[in-house]
Amino acid sequence: MKRNLIVHKLIAKSKGPLTPYATEALDKIKQEAAEYTVIFNSISMYQVNGPRDNKVVNLVEKSCTCRRWDLTGIPCKHAVACIWNLALHGKDDGVLEKWVDKSYWMQTWKDVYSHVIDPIDGQDLWTPSTCPTKLLPPKHHKQIGRPKKKRKKSAVEITELTQQMESSGKMSRKGETVECSKCKRRGHNRRSCKGTDVE
Asked: pTM, whole model, 2 decimals?
């Protein structure tokens, strides 16, 4: 109910035919599309040339070889350059919003959140259940083998370790076997050493 209220307030503030996310994304794409030039093959395909890449756009199928338009539903920078080229030659009105998938339209967003969730009383006012079945927790099953003591690293920790290795060129010392500076053997340090000094 709280989420619905937040979205309704957001919808009331929003202006334009697209959702705030889609509007922001499309504005950024427009800036990038200004760097591209378009060559039309007189059927439905366009070759789009830019400072760093060349791509092929099919406006009939609403697809681009960069795959961004296919995956997101929002025209990529290459497609935007083609739509502008259409408008330049009088074949389209150049309104980019109508090329965006309907899932990003403001009307679709309004329709999704048009339903209303009624408020409910607290748990103290709930009617006791007449169901005779008592729900029990699942039986505990002891896993085979020795339980692991090491905790599992999160995806963030793994990413940080990978980035550290890439930037410094060295792996973390975490998990390395210590070497005694007294006897030069592995597995213990100078304080716990029972051997003699190596000359």
From this structure: 0.58
Token pair for 60: 């009939």
- Extract the tokens encoding 126: 């709930």
Q: Average per-residue pLDDT in the chain?
A: 86
CB contact set of 133 (below 8 Å; sequence gap of 6+): none
d(CA 158, CA 78): 35
> What would the pLDDT profile of 145-198 be if each residue is shown by its tens digit?
998 888 888 988 888 888 877 777 676 666 677 888 888 888 888 888 887 665
CA 48 – CA 130 distance, rounded (Å): 68
Q: How many CB atoms lie within 10 A of CB 7?
A: 14
Q: Beta strand pairing status for 37-40 and 45-49? A: antiparallel
137's CB contacts (< 8 A; 6+ apart) are: none
- Note the pLDDT tens digit of each residue in 72-104: 999 999 999 999 988 888 887 878 999 999 999
Quote helix, strand, coil % in the chain, to nearest 5. Answer: 35, 10, 55
C-alpha 74/C-alpha 64 separation (Å) is 11
Nearest by Cα to 22 from 30, 65, 63, 78: 30
Alpha-carbon distance of 22 to 16, in angstroms, equals: 10
What is the Cα–Cα distance from 163 to 9, expressed in whole angstroms?
40
Sign of the dihedral through C-alpha 128, 131, 134, 137: negative
